[in-house]
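Slack export, channel: ligand-projects

TW: morning all. Re-posting the request from yesterday since it got buried. We need the structure predicted with the small molecule present, not the apo form. The ligand is adenosine-5'-diphosphate; the SMILES is in the block with the sequence. No rush, but it would help planning for next week.
GE: picking it up
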Amino acid sequence: MSPDTIIQATNVAKWYGAFQVLKDINLTVRKGERIVICGPSGSGKSTLIRCFNRLEAHQEGDITVTGVVLHDKMRNVASVRRNVGMVFQHFNLFPHMTVLMNCMVGPMWIKGIKPEAAKKTALQFLERVRIPDQANKFPVQLSGGQQQRVAIARSLCMQPAVMLFDEPTSALDPEMVSEVLETMTSLARDGMTMVCVTHEMGFARAVADRVIFMNSGQIIEEGKPHDFFTNPQHERTKLFLSQILKH
Amino acid sequence: MLYPDTVESEVIVHKPWFITAMFAAILACFLALNLTGTTMGELMRPVIGDPVQSGFYGRFAIAFTIAVIFCLNVVLIGFAPLKLQIAIVWLELLLLFLAFFETFHLSLPFIREKLPFMITQGVVTTLYVSAISIVIASAIAILGAVAKLSTNGFAYAIATFYTSFFRGLPLLMQVYLIYLGLPQLGFVIDAVPAGILALSLCYGAYMTEIFRSGIQSIDRGQWEASRSMGFGFGLTMRKVILPQALPVIIPPTGNQFISMLKDSSLVSVIGVWELMFLARTLGQKTFQHMEMLISAAMLYWIMSICLELIQSRIEHHYARSKVR
Amino acid sequence: MRHFSKLTALAASLAMALAVVPAQAGAVLDRVTAAGALKVATDANWAPQSFMNDKNELDGFDVDVAKEIGKRMGVKVVFVTPGWDIITAGNWAGRWDMHAGSMTPTKKRAEIFDFPAVYYYTPAAVAVHNDSKATKLSDLDGKVVGATTTSTFEAYANQDLVLDAAGAPPFKYEFKPKVVKSYSNSTTAFDDLRLGAGVRLDAVVSSQPSINDAKKAGYPIKQLGEPVFYEPLAVAVERGDPEFKAKIADAVQGMKTDGTLSKLSVKWYGTDYTVVK
Ligand SMILES: Nc1ncnc2c1ncn2[C@@H]1O[C@H](COP(=O)(O)OP(=O)(O)O)[C@@H](O)[C@H]1O
Ligand SMILES: [Mg+2]
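GE: finished. pasting the full token output, ligand included:
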């Protein structure tokens, strides 16, 4: 394994009871890489990226994240999680804290950073996602797009080695999608390692180094965006692309 | 408030059929009761003559008058704006209530004489026993709720056994069990600690359920976000889940506190001089127990009202992060 | 006076089930002398034996007797007021040393308690409404009679009174009611009786002092005939400390001989209840 490998999954399999969600997944994410995962609903995309910070447990194969092997007896899972930022479809901001506090608590509680320093970092990242003026509001007072950008800022405050996005724009009104995508694009431009589950094909084309297509728990196609969109190999991929690009 | 319609519907108390029905019901009600021998009969003397002699005519006249007054009152209140309606109805009920107490011919000087002691000894004891108990009960409830939600079989078993046992026994029995049973194990505890222990354990069991449902009402996403940031269980619970669960937990906990305030009277059986104990003892010698019972009732009521107010303030406070 | 109530039975069986540990010989006495204080359990709700007076302090015949016993033992007296059920359950665990609360020394209770001294007798009597047509006790045959639940008065009305207490004088049943109504205490029974002769009750069996008190408080009732039976009432201590028991017995005997006890009775009841008429 080369030193700049951030995530490595080999022969990963996972079951929910008798139902196999992930089948023989092999995937390597290197530092600075931007990977987009797409595929039909229920194909296991969320499950896969949730395995990368061990919100879900896999049963077979190996997952190594930032050099640490994930398994069910690990003691240092928190040290992996603080290195892996995650952005959820439904933002999952802490509604009882102000936007600023949302961004401060991670560094303060996990890294033991002083409040003043944490506040400075938080404001810096809120600036980065272009909502510093909302810092003292509560999440419900913000629009969906703003909330998602706060969620991104909250993850960034932990200064993670990799960011995972699980359909960050699919709960948003159309006019708010672009503001979040812009934020993500600018992150990508700054060299952040990203794994994004998304159906925003424009984003994939513009930013992704690799696009991965999943179907019923398997990676069935993988390629550079240009090849993937113009010359898909697999029948299932063709069908999927024709459906989402139709409109 | 329920979800109000933007189109005003006709006020029900102004519909003729409703007024008629109400009038008929009240008339029938008071016809059935013979009020000729009461103050009401005396008031009607100019119309019906000697109340006792007036027979059915007197009875009918009284019932009719009451029905008219009642319906008129309801119809008139119907015209008032909401806030005024509430105030008037409260006031009327209160006056009726006072009139009811008036019929006992209570000795006010006696009440005035005993009230200071009832407050300094009774109310104070009741309040501090309840307050300490609710604090301990809340602590127990958090532990119990976490244990009940945990995957640790040992903790789960203890928690479910505990809630089942203490919710299943009458509180009075628990007071006896603790006061009489603990000395067998070598712990001779006084009446007040025994009472506090019993109240805490009993209410802890009820509140375990409240806390459990409060914790469960929090979206999974909060746990996931917390965990994905590397927060451990304790941190997540203390800083993320419980603060959000509190608005869900506080209203029923307030109810529990109010009901504990009254249940704390059960510890009077082991000789704690709280409000109920004094209510039963102070007027006993001079047969003025009604005075003391009603004073105690009022004091309990006032305490409950204060708690209700505090509760609504706290609810208000927690509603802050919900406003848009 | 008051016999085992249901709660007492519960509390007692609870205490019994958990193996009674008897007090050690001399242990209670040592504790009392060491502390310089005699902890006395009594009722706060049993005027005129023990009740809260105008100064909100415990007062009454039982209270005075207890204070006098303490005085003669050379210690001060501290009162506690646990419920009757708790006291009669026994197993005091050193929370208090003596009970001065008009306890009838029944055989059953003698299994748990020692009774150092009978200090007075309560005459049980029958009260009727002032308007009552009854002129003698036998007029109450077939009538409705009220009494405190599970008390000796109720047992008398039901004609199944067993006065097995040491020193109890003999008695006979003077009437046979149709219905015996139970009340949680004598006051509620009097409250029903005051409504009128035969409205809810025709008569109440209760202690003579309680009838007199109710009369004084303006209840429209009167005593019918002579007392129906006398109940001996004693100081109680937990079994197992004969020295302590003897000390108390001495004190009470002293009060009897020098007339203090009779004086206290006259003070509180207007008559001398410390001897049977
Ligand atoms: N907790 C669970 N228990 C059982 N089945 C689950 C659970 N979570 C997800 N699944 C199933 O696993 C499959 C993959 O889910 P998911 O990873 O959420 O798909 P995607 O994100 O690609 O839409 C779906 O068929 C879903 O029904
Ligand atoms: Mg998904």
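GE: first-pass observations. The longest strand of chain A covers residues 5-16. Residues A 45-46, 167 surround magnesium ion (ligand 2) (CB under 6 Å).
TW: perfect, thank you
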